[in-house]
Amino acid sequence: MKSQSINPWGVYSVWRRHAKVYQRTWLVNCLPPLSEPILYLIAFGYGLTPLVGDVIYRGQTVSYLKFIAPAMIAIGILFQSFFEGAYSSFIRLNFQKTWQALLTGPLSFGDVFLGDWLWATTKGMIAGGLTGIITVLWGLYPLEHLLLALPIMLLGSLLFSSMGLLTSGWVQQIDQVNVPIFLLIIPMFTLCGTYFPRETLPPVLHRIADILPLSSLIDLLRWNLGLPPFWWLQLLWLVALMIIFVNIAVRKIYPKLIS
Asked: Tens digit of pLDDT for each residue in 180-236?
């Protein structure tokens, strides 16, 4: 088996291979990231605004649409980066044997792994960027705030794509991918302050939701509405989780290629 040494050109070659495949169906691939935030903003924003009115967040009153707009960016990042890392990487690894084929060339395991990880990250950034553009055009998120939030979006994409790769390396059958979706992704989607402040949850659920990574990402993307007192701890928490997930993913995927 080849070593895990990393060649930047090799990483780019793997990333470019996935990007070229994506270009063939770019319109279909762009529809979900565009349609989902519009649907959520219309359904929850306009549907619940007459009932909810304004929201108290970090000591200030904000409109409900402006409250959920940053969360829609985070949701786009979560779904696209995780599912690319989980489903698509699993298919490339176990059915299409793309990883094995790439390793027959002058590429190391590190090149293929990083290329796949960065491509899943790119999918998250595409979704987050498109969603962000929609919120800017809607007047819900200032353009300058979106540009300053790009590093946070990148960190979130790296984190959730690493979670997806860990899933693809852990599960043995594609149906098993549903387990982390129902046990982790959906609870994050519903409990992490996406559609309501987490403070309204019962204390136990509030503490659990605070630990979930999507909560930190949403809080950091809402920085223009006010940052939590220890925001830097949330940032470090996301970085730490990313490092942990990537290392476990490497240890899970590497033996599959050896066997």
From this structure: 999 999 999 999 999 999 999 999 999 999 999 999 999 999 998 988 888 999 999
Residue 53, sorted as left (phi over 0), alpha (psi -120 to 50) or beta, turns out to be left
| Predicted confidence (pLDDT) per residue in 195-205, tens digit | 999 999 999 99
Cβ(37)–Cβ(88) under 8 Å? no
pTM over 0.70: yes
d(CA 19, CA 12): 10
In a domain, 2, yes or no: no
- Structural domain count, the chain: 1
Residue 3: inside a domain, yes or no? Answer: no
Asked if the structure places residue 1 within a domain, the reply is: no
Say which residue the tokens 């925001």 belong to. Answer: 231
- Expressed as residue numbers, the domain containing 102 is 8-258
Distance CA 84, CA 33 (A): 13
Of 259, 252, 256, 250, nearest to 4 (Cα)?
250
Q: Is 239 inside any structural domain?
A: yes
pLDDT, tens digit, 9 for 90 and up, residues 106-156: 999 999 999 999 999 999 999 999 999 999 999 999 999 999 999 999 999
Q: Which residues are CB-contacts of 85 (< 8 A; sequence separation ≥ 6)?
A: 116, 117, 120, 160, 161, 162, 163, 164, 165, 166, 167, 168
Cα(33)–Cα(135) distance, integer angstroms:
13
